[in-house]
Amino acid sequence: MAQLYIVPTPIGNLEDITLRALRVLREVDLILAEDTRKSGILLKHYEISQKMIPHHAFNEHKTLKSLIEKLKSGITIALISDAGTPCISDPGFLLVRECLNEHIPVECLPGPTAFVPALVNSGFSSDRFLFEGFLPHKKGRQTRLIELSKEKCTLIFYESPHRLVKTLEQFILYFGSERMASVSRELTKVYEENVKGTFGELIDLFKDKQVKGEIVIVVDGNRE
Ligand code: SAM
Q1: Is the shortest distance between the CB of 182 and ligand 1 below 6 Å?
Q2: Is the CB–ligand 1 distance for residue 129 below 6 Å?
Q3: Which of 86, 103, 151, 222 would be 81's cystine partner, CB 3.0–4.6 Å?
Q4: Does the C-beta of 186 come closer than 6 Å to ligand 1?
Q5: Best probe residue, ligand 1, of 215, 217, 218, 219 (max atoms within 8 Å of C-beta)
């Protein structure tokens, strides 16, 4: 019966995949993957040989109609991204929305996503938090930072390693130099690092290094 599964995959450590995710990936008729080469490594590791086709930010609009037709014909599809949960700073939302519009059942399996371990490791309040993902690079960035500076809840950002120090410097301007933050790098991987301090302390730690790997920045809420 037609069904779309959203299947989270590991953010580094290949062991972080659920038994149900593996079963669904083995049982579906088709797997949509952001990067078939990258996902091929995961599927090979778990000896999954289901048919896989690319589904990424550059073709998700174009392929929407044909995917809906495929689903309506009664097949089951699993959507995976390079890492973590599809739709979280990754493609997927368009397909989910269209499936729901067309009354095609969608099920998202629970599983890995980078911001949850980063938030929990930070030790900042996790009762209420705002997941910002990637800030806009240019247009709208300043306006968004002004809005965020007033937020009382914990803030979570995805950032690339080469922009980390620049972003922390910008955070001083908008959030103030006393605000505490935490940087999680390479979560679940061999060189995982979680460091906490003021923006200035974090800048000192990273400014003379060539920062590598994947980064989540967690910022304490506005306490004024
Ligand atoms: N869908 C993913 C999720 O559920 O977290 C996010 C995909 S987004 C394109 C990639 C960003 O997620 C990276 O730039 C980084 O900010 C964050 N990320 C992914 N894996 C990570 C890891 N192992 N450690 C730290 N951050 C990670």
Answers
A1: no
A2: no
A3: 86
A4: yes
A5: 215
The tokens for 139 are: 């247009």
Which residues span the domain enclosing 202? 115-219
The answer to whether position 19 is within a domain reads yes
- Ligand 1 nearest atom to the CA of residue 160, by list position: 14
Last residue of a domain, one of 57, 82, 108: 108
**Residue 224: inside a domain:** no
Question: How many alpha carbons lie under 13 Å from residue 88 in its C-beta half-sphere?
Answer: 22
Q: Is pLDDT above 90 for 1?
A: no
CA dihedral 6, 11, 12, 18 (to 10 degrees): -40
| Residue 104 belongs to domain with CATH number | 3.40.1010.10
| Closest approach atom of ligand 1 to CA 115 | 5
Instruction: Please tell me the distance between residue 217's alpha carbon and the centre of ligand 1 in angstroms.
Output: 11
Question: Ligand 1 center to residue 89 CA distance, Å?
Answer: 8
Taking a C-beta distance cutoff of 8 angstroms, is the pair 220, 151 a contact? no
For residue 69, how far is its CA from the centre of ligand 1 (angstroms)? Answer: 31
Q: Using CA atoms, how far apart are residues 12 and 152, in angstroms rounded to an integer?
A: 31
Q: Is the CB of 9 under 6 A from ligand 1?
A: no
Does pTM surpass 0.70? Answer: yes
State the chain's mean pLDDT as an integer: 97
The closest of 24, 26, 42, 45 to 34, measured between CA atoms, is 42
User: Which residues are paired to 183 by β-bridges?
Assistant: 195, 217
Q: Which of 125, 132, 168, 127 is nearest to 147 (CA)?
A: 132
